[in-house]
Write a structure and sequence with these properties.
Strand order of the largest sheet: 11-12-13-14-21-18-17-16
Largest sheet: 8 strands, antiparallel
Distance between the termini: 69 Å
Shape: elongated
Low-confidence stretches: 1-12, 388-393
Helix content: 25-40%
Number of helices: 19
Length: 658
């Protein structure tokens, strides 16, 4: 019997159900999915296409697989699992789990390209890795398991599996390896495939059907990236590991309903409030699931919808230059290695978005070899893609002409040189502080020169228990005090959707200017008590950020919030080497940023010149931050003179150095 949130008899019309109608129901799916496995682009290892895959670039993957072959497998232990509940450390357990699964992915690829007749030991590697996953007490990550909150235990409860991102990744990996190597597994290790199906049924399929209280279903209206990530993995599991047609159809019908909730939550402009990095494990996962459904149904489930077109354009719109992207919320400023750009390229080509297709093709060409960290399904799909890519170098990627504006998240990206990242690029963000993976960043700005951000957003630090707990905003990277935003009376921004920006002027092609009222973000009485205007002046080659405020008199009793100070500061977070002059100017050089292209820096000038300049260095000991920014980030705080505290104006002008 289902528990938790009750099912509704007649869900509201959504994109998929509206387009597919009864074709998305279990009875129709039983027919359209008949013979589905034979229609998939990823073929069993006995297929002749794997001879072509063997000729694809695999040097790094092959070398690593050969080195680890026959050695002890990574072994996550209960002490690693329990650590999260004791001291908040996630990586001790999750790192070992990821190492095990990535090794298994490499072994599957090597066994597939070697072919069924090979006897070089790769199939035994796959068998051992798959069996270890079957024996693993929990497929969920400790940070997600509810065992501690339910019982106080720190040991996973085998009889009550928790269905999370980790469980979805394991079941999809087992599904794909079964699909590619199934007949060989039957010959080599009879019974293993039956064990895989049993574990899949008990750990994933049954909990998915029995419970409606999984938070990631989005039945409470809060739909986030877990929804498409898990649903798409369950689609793969149902297609490849569920042999009963009726059960398979029931599972996939529910997955379609879940994906529909996600797509219904996407605004018309296709914006993802979690940003570029989470697009790949949210919207990108949805696109993969929809492509799999279309293949499996022989085109019966055609996902060419307006919301899909908007989603496909989002990564392209957030590109600053080279490997750098606008990062908001928990996202790094540089694109991860191993992203499935080939998937995005296929979608863009299909939908006729030539700019997005060329953009994705350029990144796909940079990383022609599959990365095992991407997951087995993505790796196999990349190896099965026989189409030639447009190998346009990144330096010649076509970018949206003047930039873009996404009204749903109040994000503007404006370029000095239309269609190029040469010169300055300005990104300005409004939004609110109740966004998914939120940082207190309402009103923040990022400025890049020749594609390299130098006025920056620090991005995502390593996740711990604190990251998603009540002390989240004690983490420096999450605080408004360490974003490029104002601090009226020294205040931190508040948390929640009511702490928001009000758009006073939207940008246009002719006037790339975003004006925001920021008062509500700090709990002030009126949005226009603090107005920030960010603009790109193409003629002069400058970016201007203008702040104007009219605050209660700070000395008046009761007018200043008790947690505040008498000071009014405006903060900018800077990467690279900062030199502050004596004439109300400063310079920023890209030196010290590990992946920065050698090139120009920024020149800053401000008025009033009487603002006091305070400089703080943030020495980075978190590898997720230091790998991107180097040893440090620098915070420049402009403290307003006493006569400008209650009301005043401050203007920062930014230009590229010659």
């Amino acid at each position: 019997m289902a528990t938790g949130i009750p099912a509704v008899d007649a869900p509201p019309l959504r994109p998929l159900l509206g387009a597919w109608g009864t074709s998305a129901g279990a009875p129709a799916l039983m027919e359209s999915l008949r013979g589905a496995r034979d229609r998939l682009a990823v073929r069993p290892a006995s297929d002749a296409g794997w001879h072509r895959a063997a000729g694809r670039p695999l040097a790094e993957l092959r070398a690593q697989a050969t080195e680890e072959k026959g050695s002890h497998w990574p072994q996550p232990l209960v002490s690693h699992y329990a650590r999260y509940f004791r001291d908040g450390n996630r990586t001790a357990y999750e790192g070992l789990v990821a190492g095990r699964q990535q090794r298994l992915t490499r072994a599957v690829v090597m066994a597939a390209v070697a072919g069924p007749a090979s006897d070089d030991g790769w199939l035994d590697e796959v068998i051992d890795g798959a069996f270890l996953l079957c024996e693993q007490s929990s497929w969920s990550w400790a940070a997600h398991d509810d065992v501690f909150t339910r019982s106080g235990d720190v040991v996973p409860e085998r009889s009550r599996p928790y269905l999370d991102l980790g469980a979805g990744e394991v079941v999809a990996q087992l599904a794909w390896l079964d699909h590619v190597l199934g007949s060989q597994l039957d010959e080599r290790t009879p019974g293993l495939r039956r064990r895989i199906r049993l574990e899949t049924q008990e750990r994933v399929i049954q909990p998915f059907l029995d419970r409606l209280d999984w938070h990631w279903l989005g039945l409470d209206g809060d739909v986030h990236n877990w929804n498409p990530w898990i649903h798409s993995n369950i689609i793969a599991a149902a297609l490849l590991l569920v042999d009963d047609p009726g059960l398979q159809a029931a599972v996939i019908a529910r997955c379609i309903e879940g994906l529909d909730r996600f797509l219904a939550s996407i605004p018309a402009d296709g914006a993802i409030d979690e940003g570029f990095a989470y697009w790949w494990n949210g919207a990108g996962r949805a696109l993969e699931g929809l492509a799999l459904l279309e293949e499996a149904s022989g085109g019966e489930l055609d996902p060419d919808l307006p919301v899909i077109r908007a989603l496909v354009a989002f990564p392209h719109r957030m590109h600053l230059g080279h490997g750098w992207f606008l990062n908001v919320a928990d996202g790094p400023a540089r694109a991860h290695h191993g992203l499935p750009w080939d998937m995005l390229q296929r979608w863009a080509v299909r939908l006729g978005d030539s700019e997005a297709a060329a953009h994705a093709a350029a990144f796909a060409a940079v990383e022609p070899e599959p990365n095992s960290a991407a997951g087995l399904g993505r790796v196999l799909t990349q190896l099965s893609d026989s189409k030639r890519r447009n190998e346009r170098p990144l330096g010649h990627v076509l970018l949206p002409s003047w930039g873009t504006y996404l009204p749903s998240v109040q994000i503007m990206v404006a370029r000095q040189t239309p269609g190029s990242f040469v010169g300055l690029t300005l990104a300005a963000k409004g939004g609110h502080n109740g966004e998914h993976h939120n940082h207190r960043d309402v009103g923040s700005v990022v400025v890049a020169v020749d594609g390299v951000p130098l006025l920056v957003d620090a991005g995502q630090p390593t996740y711990t228990a604190q990251t998603f707990g009540p002390d989240r905003y004690r983490i420096r990277a999450m605080q408004s005090a360490w974003h490029s935003v104002p601090a009226p009376f020294g205040l931190e921004q508040g948390t929640g959707s009511s702490f928001a920006a009000t758009v006073l002027q939207e940008p246009t092609l002719e006037e790339p200017t975003l004006a925001l009222g920021l008062g509500a973000a700090y709990g002030l009485d009126h949005a226009e008590q603090w107005i920030r205007t960010s603009l790109m002046n193409r003629e002069l080659g400058t970016v201007v950020i203008d702040d104007r405020w009219n605050l209660p008199e700070p000395a008046a009793e009761g007018t200043r919030p008790p947690e505040g100070t008498p000071d009014v500061d405006i903060t900018y977070l800077v990467a690279g080497t900062v030199s502050v002059g004596t004439d109300a100017t400063a310079s920023v050089a890209p030196a010290g940023i590990p992946a920065a292209e050698t090139g120009r820096g920024l020149h800053l000038r401000w008025k009033p010149a009487t603002a006091v300049v305070l400089v703080d260095e943030w020495h980075l000991d978190d590898p997720l931050l230091s790998d991107i920014w180097g040893e440090k980030l620098t915070r420049i705080r402009f403290r307003m003179p006493s006569e400008n505290r209650a009301s005043g104006a401050f203007t920062l002008t930014v230009e590229a150095t010659s």
